TrEMBL record:
Protein name from the UniProt record: DUF3783 domain-containing protein
Entries under Pfam families matching the protein: DUF3783
InterPro entries (alphabetical): UCP014543
Top-rank taxon, per record: Bacteria
Length: 127
């Protein structure tokens, strides 16, 4: 799998453009995920060959909304991982919800991962 970053729920186009420009030197595939694809497995969206697209009748697709942006790093490890996170911080493009694609979460859809990250965020940052 080619190193990929999935960009989910970015409403601010200026911030998205700034983030993409900061990551351009890494030659990592950046893929903006549209709301109609939120029900697809994250592994499929990232290009994992073993994870297939799912067919979900439109009536069953969740209408839940995400409040925050989410960034998923897939196939990015070691020094490259550290450099990407450093570059995002340095560029001033904070993203509240960040995750790494794993064998455990590759079959989850975007909303499942979002809810898990939201739980973790609330646990570490109580209001």
């Amino acid at each position: 799998m080619k190193p990929t970053i999935l960009l989910i729920n970015f409403q601010n186009q200026q911030k998205l453009r700034k983030l993409k420009m900061a990551l351009l030197p890494f030659k990592i595939r950046l893929k903006t995920i549209e709301p109609q694809d939120y029900s697809q497995p994250i592994g499929y969206l990232a290009g994992v060959k073993e994870v297939s697209q799912v067919q979900i009748p439109s009536a069953l697709i969740s209408q839940e909304q995400m409040e925050k942006e989410m960034l998923i790093l897939a196939g990015i490890t070691g020094n490259l991982f550290d450099q990407v996170l450093y570059t995002l911080r340095k560029a001033g493009t904070p993203v509240d919800y960040k995750a790494v694609l794993t064998e455990h979460n590759q079959n989850w859809n975007c909303m499942q991962l979002y809810k898990e990250l939201e739980k973790e965020h609330n646990m570490y940052h109580p209001s």
